[in-house]
Amino acid sequence: MARAELKRPEKAEAFAQRMNRVIDYIDSHLAEAEPLRLEAVAAVAAFSPFHFHRIFRAWTGETLQDFIRQRRLEKAAGQLVHNPSMTVQTISQLSGFNSSEAFSRAFSQHFGMRPSAWRLGGYRQWDPVVGKAAGEPGEDGFEVRIRVEPVRTVVYFRVGGDYRTTALEAWTRCLEWMDQHGLNDQPCFGMALDDPRITPPDRCRYDACVELPAGWDVRGERTSRKVMVGGLYASLLYVGPRSGIGDAWLKMLDDWLPSSGRGLGEAAFFEHYQRGELQNKDPVTVELFMPLGD
Predict the structure, then answer these.
(1) What's the pLDDT at 130?
(2) Which pLDDT band holds residue 273 (cuts at 50, 70, 90)?
(3) Whole-model pTM?
(4) Angle at the Cα of 219 from the Cα atoms of 217 and 223, rounded to 5 degrees
């Protein structure tokens, strides 16, 4: 009996890793105009297409194609705001739509406004829960630096839901794993993978990550790994209450980026924490990194 009880969390963790690989695979193929085929996506999770269709819907609450469509629209919504020099046609292509007309129809159905209206400020009215009245961004007055970051390989622990509660849960799991493997001195990175002004809270994903030393490996270790993209990033050192981190991100996105003359890159946003800053206390010191494009 005791053995069976010990195996259940391991099975649940392995299942979560398989489904997280699927979500990551979808995110990395959103720009493809050809539909993501059920057979190909199911193979990523090592399920048969027949079983995967039902498993995916139970896991996400949506069909595979509905999920892909919404992720494409969420990606496009962010590009419209943060890459003002990019045309709507280009954004529609990068989001996997065959034509600007099809993209505009799908966007209007989901967000209640055309892409051009969203870009001109309509996004400020979008609430991911009820569809109206979002808050205004904060004030200026902070120093953003441009830095080149290296490629990193990390182990990550993903939790879904409202960032105000899931980040702590993800870090609890990550810190326990670091303690078990003697990696307490390794750099730690938090990744909020969705924009909470666009994506509903229950669909938001947060990864607590720890960088792996070069050549590190443990035989039989079952963890989720990924590569953090290197390149050009804007960085902001934030010191203050933990509750203010979200506002600091909005300042970078809404105030600094439009006036910088730069576009937003394709890599994930991330936060660099020191180990001591991962306890749930204030004030917190964290460095925010936003990817930059051409």
Answers:
(1) 56
(2) very high
(3) 0.68
(4) 70
